[in-house]
Amino acid sequence: MPKLSVVIPVYDQWDMLPNMLNALRHQSLDQAAFHVVVVANEPVPAQFDRTVLAPNVQLKDCLTAGSYAARNVGISVCRATHIVFTDADCVPEPDWLDVISKAVLQNPNMLLAGRISMVPAAQATLWSTYDELRGIPQDRYVRNGYGACANLCVPRVAIDECGEFDAARLSGGDAALCRLAATKGYPITYLDGAVVTHKARCSFGEMARKARRIRGGQVRNGVLKRRLLWIFVGLFPPARETWRFVKAPVSLGKRARAVLGLYILWLVGILETIRLLAGASPERR
């Protein structure tokens, strides 16, 4: 039985998947010690080269929309005592699974959230500058009781006790599961040495889709009280995030571009809230 199972949902990112799988081929942890489940959240493109799938990689289908529905399909075929979640657009460092494997031995009943390091764009844009400075602050997420599925290890017993991800969610399912697990005696801790990298997004379209997907999870999912709170908070300018950008140890020009991007996306969020309240479908990409 492998020590770890790795679940990777894929939707509209088949061009990025080979880099992820290549990085998994070159892990310092022995290949026999982990099993990988790639879950296609859409029909597999005809041009996808299946030769990139190593012997310890399994390809499954999930045509129910949403990465959490896909992750649940992955969970259903995992054989290890701990399940590691990541995304097709991430690339793990060579010792990623080795670090997680050793941490699991020391803390078998804890959720482990690893570091997500942003890779600067080859050609900087307003949006890549924003994405680099904002990043995916996993350490801050952990202080708030959850971790992002881009780099998250969950004991199988915690999933068995808490249930799988909420398949209806298109965003925020990782936070919901982590917080529920904590109430059942499975707390989360930050694992700085387990690193995956993520390229900074470079276009407005990419950043707007992400902002809309996150807002969809806030407005459409969870208890009514929390949803109303998100709607209310979203109407106010993002002062706290603005202050983080202002304090960032980068040039004044980068800080100014990041703040500009932040407020453009704040307006995108307001428009998306109105659209969702009018009955439109949430963004899934």
Automatic annotation (TrEMBL):
InterPro entries: Nucleotide-diphossugar_trans. It holds the Pfam family Glyco_tranf_2_3. The keyword tRNA processing does not apply. The keyword Signal does not apply. GO terms for molecular function: glycosyltransferase activity. It comes from the Bacteria. CDD domains: Glyco_tranf_GTA_type. Keywords: Glycosyltransferase, Transferase. Belongs to the glycosyltransferase 2 family. This is Putative glycosyl transferase. The lineage of its organism: Bacteria, Pseudomonadati, Pseudomonadota, Alphaproteobacteria, Rhodobacterales.
